[in-house]
Amino acid sequence: MMDFKKYTIYDCSIVHLPKIEKREGNITPIENKKDIPFDIRRIYYLYDVPGGEARGGHAHKKLHQFLIAASGSFDVLLDDGKNKKVVNLNRPYIALHIVPGLWRELLNFSSGSICLVLASEIYDEDDYIRNYKDFINFKGSSK
Ligand code: TYD
């Protein structure tokens, strides 16, 4: 629970993934421990997002995630209760590491885009904070 409270948007980072360039097309491999700082316990991807739709709109207590625009582009709004920033993802070899304890929204999906997510834990609804007021209360209660 401590992790949830201490992290800010400045703990999130852009990670350049390996890119093997070939005439017949490129490859980006991601290996546990080498290219990603947590064990991957789950992979999921968002696709067929209708135009104008937003995803996310929640925080996680323990979960670390790598978000990758495997195809197309989208924006990630990060919010730690004090600071906000928007990160645009639009390359399959760039990942955004989202640490625990941040409110996030995914917006402005381009047509046909795919958001690939590598996650440090299996799905657990108890890890979610889905109400923004609850999130602010959680973050504030550490200080
Ligand atoms: P949710 O994480 O709320 O979607 P988003 O934040 O992208 O809008 O998940 C939507 C639904 O899918 C929710 O009912 C739980 C389910 N779900 C799983 O069962 N397993 C998963 O790994 C994920 C990410 C979601």
Keywords:
binds thymidine-5'-diphosphate, five-stranded antiparallel sheet, 143 residues, mainly beta
Structural write-up:
The protein is mainly beta. 10% of the residues lie in helices and 36% in strands. A five-stranded antiparallel sheet has the order 1-7-4-9-2, with no helix packed on it. Strands 6-5-8-3-10 form a five-stranded antiparallel sheet. Bound molecules: thymidine-5'-diphosphate. The site of thymidine-5'-diphosphate has 7 residues, from strand 2 and strand 3.
Describe the structure concisely:
This protein has two helices and ten strands; from the N terminus they run αββββββββββα. The protein is mostly beta strands. The strands form two sheets. It has a five-stranded antiparallel β-sheet with strand order 1-7-4-9-2, with no helix packed on it.
Low-confidence spans: pLDDT under 50, at least 5 residues?
A: none
How many helices? The count is: 2
Strand order of the largest sheet: 1-7-4-9-2
Q: Share of helix among residues?
A: under 10%
The largest sheet, given as strand count, sense and whether it forms a barrel, is: 5 strands, antiparallel
Give the C-alpha Rg.
15 Å
Shape: globular
Topology (SSEs and partners):
Elements lengths: L1 H5 L6 E4 L25 E5 L8 E6 L4 E7 L2 E6 L4 E6 L4 E5 L4 E5 L6 E6 L8 E2 L2 H9 L3
Antiparallel strand pairs: 1-7, 2-9, 3-8, 3-10, 4-7, 4-9, 5-6, 5-8
